[in-house]
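look at this record:
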Amino acid sequence: MHGPEPDARARDLAERRADARAARDFATADALRDELAGQGWTVVDEPEGWHLEPRVPVKADRPEPIAAPEVPSILDRPATADVSVHWVCEGWPDDIARAVASFRANTGGRDVRYVVADVTDQPDGTFGDDVEVLRLGSGTAWGAARNAGLKRTAGRLAFVLDGSIEAAGDVFGPLEAALEDPAAGVVGPFGIVTHDLRQFDEQPAPGPCDAIEGYFMALRRDTLVASGLFDEKFKWYRTADIEFSFRVKDLGLAARVVHVPVVKHKHRMWFETDPATRAKWSKRNYYRFLDRWRDRWDLVLDPHPPERHDHGPDHDHDTP
């Protein structure tokens, strides 16, 4: 049995919304979407148009969290937005809500989608009604949660963020411009360099670097797909950004520092994790990185290979 058919007014609203989106008048498009919702319709965008579906009433009981591997991927479909912005919530939801609000205030008319992979079962609406929240089980590790969110990338570009970052102006324009260069792979405001794959130091100047820190990484959607996403054996965040940057560089693409107006607040996962625990987890992640990339000096800007012995990172550098 087929569901109800939209009436002429609903179809007219949907047509006007499509025209507004084509003209990049997203404020009008959003208002028309809300008007359709008030009439009981959800507009579903497709690569070649749209269709209307009856809105499903919200049930009183929330569904069970979804397992990360079961999150459906849309990466095999054409992009339907300009940018998708991603967070993983392992706590401190107010930080992410602040970050979402700051990016929302600086879209400049772009079609931006927000995705939060939440392993803390936050109440509905915590991050805003325009955010796609993936409710994952509380035992979901960082790498699996990050990839679950990235599978929902509808944007032509993907921004991968930590909740400590707050936009303070147009963060989109400079990164869009940088990623127009086909040689650019992963870019962002916080880069690091290394000579020996043991010590990693900040690269404050715009331009080439060895890795982009996970506070804020930006890349094209096709690069995200080609990279294979993050290594899910990184149960904790640390060094996963370096490993991912090397994955991108292994595609023949560059990592580059691009300055954008942001405020970097306290990175809570680092500072609020027991020092002994974070040292143990950091060492494990570092050796996972080293096991794969220890001999890839071609991926380092200025390599000075060390003597043939290995040791863990003994620096204070905090790489999310």
Remarks:
- Confidence is low (pLDDT under 50) at residues 309-320.
